Amino acid sequence: MHPKIATAGADLLSVNPRERAIKAPLVTLSLVRMLGLTTALASVVIVPVKAASADTPASTTAVERKFTVNIPAQKLSSALVALSNATGTQLAYTTQLSDGLRSSAISGTMSVNAALAQILSGTGLTYQFNGNTVVLTKASANIKLGPVRVGGTLSRESATGPGVGYVAHYTTAGTKTDTPITEIPNSIYIITKQQMVDQQPQNVMQALRYTPGVYADALGTAQNGAADNQNNNGGGFLQRGFSSMQFIDGLQTNSQSAGETAFLDRIEVVNGPASVMYGQTSPGGIIGMSLKKPTETPLHEASVGFGNWGRYEATIDVSDKITKSGNVRYRLAAIGDTQGTQTKYVDYHRVGVLPSITWDIDKKTSLTLLGSYLYTPGNGTYRTGYPSHGTLLPGEYGRIARSTFLGEPDWNKTGDRTAMFEYLFTHKFNKYVSFEQTFRWEKSRKINETLSLDDQIDASNIERIPLQQNLSSKTIGMDARFVGKFNTGPVSHHWVVGSDFRKYDASFGYQFDYTGDESIINIYNPVYGGYTPCFGYTSNCKDFGGTSTFSRFQEGVYFQDQIKYKNLSILLGGRNDWVSNTNYIQSINGLNPTNGITVKNSQRPYSNQSAFTWRAGLIYNFKFGLAPYFSYSTSFVPQTGFDSHGNTFSPLTGKQYEIGLKYQIPKTDVLLTAAAYHISENHYLVTDPNNTNYSADAGKVTSEGFEVSAHANIIKNLQAVASYSYIDARYTRTNVTSSVYNPNGFLDQSGADISEKGKYVQNVPRNMFSIFLDYTPPLNILKGIGINGGIRYVGFTYSDAVNSYKAPDYLLFDIGAHYDFGATVSALKGLRAQLAISNLTNKYYITSCNTSSCYLGEGRRVYGNISYSW
After folding, report:
1. Helix (H), strand (E) counts: the chain
2. Where is the Secretin/TonB short N-terminal domain positioned along the sequence (predicted)?
3. Where among 138, 162, 188 does a domain terminate?
4. Which pTM was predicted?
5. How many CB atoms lie within 10 A of CB 364?
6. Which alpha helices (H) appear in 161-239, and where do they start and end?
7. Beta bridge mates, 544
8. 469 falls within a domain
9. Minimal CA–CA distance to 807: which of 817, 797, 820?
């Protein structure tokens, strides 16, 4: 969709899809009157500048100043934006003037006058200087624009904003600099705001379903080969076979509610190691999220939603200026949601608010303050899962229904709350150096009272273990960096030098109640009410549990240089991290058959770890849009486990080789990418087979594969995303052996032990494919109506470390529609209806299994909303 510039009844639009994200300034009604243009000339593009024209130069110095430019032949509007970026020149022209026109190529060192004359050669257009603006007109028209008053600064697409349609061309993910994706030598994928609007994901996992290299439905899995065995923010997604970490505005988050989609402008996926810029990260990559912040143009939107399972939702998102000049702006996003789920007695309830304010202190200094609060008394997840006999394998009475709840309605509490404060500060000292800083404080708490599944007694009955958990955490993080540019002859440098720290404190308590026979339930005909919780560590209660208190401080220093010589871009970076686990106290309370209770308290020694990570890559941009690249990068994750002798483990260390292609198809807004990679990770941990209370270093995991993707605004009313991923993740070096699991034997898991070496990592699909399209037909009879749909395929996954059984593959279909009321009735401008249906056929499928349970995928979900923008 085109962003809009407010005028007297006419939209100011950019023609090229690359420019649709240009933030349009407000043009007052007096401007339109002063221009005296017809309605056909009311659409204006203004590109910032400082230069002169052929007719009335501002100054001799400005006219004669020379610039080195290299702009290939392309759409005229794109060439003008490139010239503006290269020279700092401000251009004003009506979009009708550039429609269908192509520019001539320019290359060399020349003045703005010479560059404009060459670009416009053969287009039938000329230019003249009007005040401080270069105005384009038809050579024969002699149309003269009056003074242009612009309320705001027009710039190209924001590197942290919502993107344009399904495509984003610029990003800060992976480099912390505003860089075109086609100049970064590694895999980065952007989920734009429009894609989220069309697909209606309720959380980040659902938003990631169409992203290459990401398995977003691995709920409830525990990956032995995954790099991150810490809190993964309630998510079950994997990147290139490794569990992932989430970052908000560049800082790692441990929030249990991270990534409320109603609060996000975009989601950025960096596949591959990213430790150089972000510290502790898995070799699979990171998930970056950008919170909504005040916009330069007013924004007002509200919506009400509905859906199956009793869903009702309301959201609001408003942004406007506070001061008359607009140097102080605010934004407020809020959500209220209540609904059931496909499983009885499992509900989702949430209220949240995200206020923010931006103060442009002066032309060089800006400060943004954000705060958020999310209260989720029911998080809608059913982590208990179901037995494999009755889901993965045919049961005596068929499959267990998705609606089946195997817990107790009176012992069923899953919820969390999170509070956060953040500020982002920037100051530009001069054209060479600027300073950027991000700070966040967040506090999160999660509670869980459920019954987890234990042994399956027979074909119909299974034993449950009552469980209660309480996790609270507090995180303080800051990232401060100097960013700058300089040239060494024909070579340009875009450098970053920075430091960040993160202080994380967590307290985790848990208790199991081994009640016995009263906790057994029939999986096909559950009867509730037979269980009464008994917790207290007394001889009357058969409970076992403990508490852990953990504190970590991490600090890192990093540097990066993006070197560019003509069409060649080279990326070099390095980082050193120091990690201190300053406090690790564990208290274990357990059963004793003699006196009924025993208590064990232990205080673990603190540990210090450090690691150096680095990366290097290069990418070459051919003039016809192709950009091949190669990169090498490393990662690390500090580990908190201890072996049976009380010794700490080495950090998880990973490295990746990646080779790929990026192709921006000329004359289109279509970005195609392909990447092949090889990742290895050392020192992953498993439970010590000789002492199950401790961990053991299992060895090395290798993941290799390739990804292809497309993000495309094919034409004005047709957008698409598509991807294919192949992942081969294996245990390549290990001394660990595991039993062959026999899911038919109910309690029998005593098969012969075999080595895990060479086996596939469990719950990692080798093949994934997806495609999603949205189309609004231009026909008058269907004016305002749009349709969309998608296909998702996930290959089979092995369910244990020795690959003795597997969960089958599945194919899902999603469809949707939307209607713009204003397209047919002008009085209803801004009113829009939306419908999104996932898993259209209501397919029964399994996302993953382990040796104790399987997890069912979501059935048919129907979401709709009505939104109004004003």
Report:
1. 8, 46
2. 89-139
3. 138
4. 0.80
5. 12
6. 193-199, 204-207
7. 512
8. no
9. 797
Show the tokens assigned to 313.
Answer: 């939702």
Asked if residue 104 belongs to a domain, the reply is: yes
Give me the pLDDT at residue 14, please: 33
Total length of the chain: 870
Give the other-Cβ count within 10 Å of 755's Cβ.
14
Between CA 368 and CA 329 the distance in angstroms is 9
Using CA atoms, how far apart are residues 581 and 13, in angstroms rounded to an integer? Answer: 54
Q: Which of 68-72, 455-459, 660-664 has the lowest mean pLDDT?
A: 68-72
Instruction: For residue 313, give the H/E element and its range.
Output: strand 311-321
Asked if residue 127 lies in contact with residue 142, where contact means CB atoms within 8 angstroms, the answer is: no
pLDDT score recorded for residue 616 = 98
Which residues does 716 contact at the CB level (< 8 Å), separation at least 6? none
Domain end marker among 74, 103, 138: 138
Residue 434 lies in a domain: yes
C-alpha distances in Å from residue 795, one per residue of 83, 743, 769, 779, 807: 47, 21, 9, 39, 9
Of the two residues 80 and 810, the one the predictor is more confident about is 810
Q: What is the pLDDT of residue 571?
A: 97
Q: Residue range 651-668: average pLDDT?
A: 94
Per-residue tokens: 634: 């490393």
Minimum mean pLDDT range among 74-83, 558-567, 790-799: 74-83
Instruction: Name every residue whose Cβ is closer than 8 Å to that of residue 109 and which is 6 or more positions away in sequence.
Output: 66, 67, 68, 69
Parent domain of 689: 299-458+474-869
Containing H/E element for 117?
helix 112-119
The answer to whether residue 860 scores a pLDDT higher than 50 is yes
Domain count, the chain: 2
Locus of tokens 């603006």: 133
| CB burial of residue 23 (10 Å; 0-12, 13-18, 19+) | middle
- How do strand 413-428 and strand 433-456 relate by DSSP bridges? antiparallel
Integer Cα distance of 223 and 712 in angstroms: 34
| Contacts for 868 with CB less than 8 Å, ≥ 6 apart | 301, 302, 303, 830, 831, 832
Residues 683, 639 contacting (CB under 8 angstroms): yes
Rounded to whole angstroms, how far apart are CA atoms 559 and 637?
19
Per-residue pLDDT band for 129 (boundaries 50, 70, 90) equals: low
In CATH, what number is assigned to the domain containing residue 637?
A: 2.40.170.20
pLDDT of amino acid 233: 34
Q: Cβ contacts of residue 798 below 8 Å, gap of 6+?
A: 759, 760, 761, 762, 763, 805, 806
794 and 215 in contact (C-beta within 8 Å)? yes
pLDDT of residue 743: 58
Instruction: Write phi, then psi, for 162 (nearest 5 degrees).
Output: -75, -10
Residue 450 Cα distances to 390, 415, 513, 528, angstroms: 21, 11, 11, 13
Distances (CA, A) of 770 to 60, 448, 796: 57, 34, 15
Which pLDDT belongs to residue 308?
94
> Is residue 315, in this structure, part of any structural domain at all?
yes
What percent of the chain lies above the pLDDT cut of 90? 52
Distances in Å between the Cα of 57 and the Cα atoms of 54, 63, 125, 143, 559 are: 7, 6, 18, 18, 42
pLDDT at 837: 96
What does the pLDDT read at residue 221? 34
Higher pLDDT, 617 or 155: 617
Could you tell me the pLDDT band of residue 374, with boundaries at 50, 70 and 90?
Answer: very high
Is 338's pLDDT higher than 70? yes
CATH number for position 82: 3.55.50.30
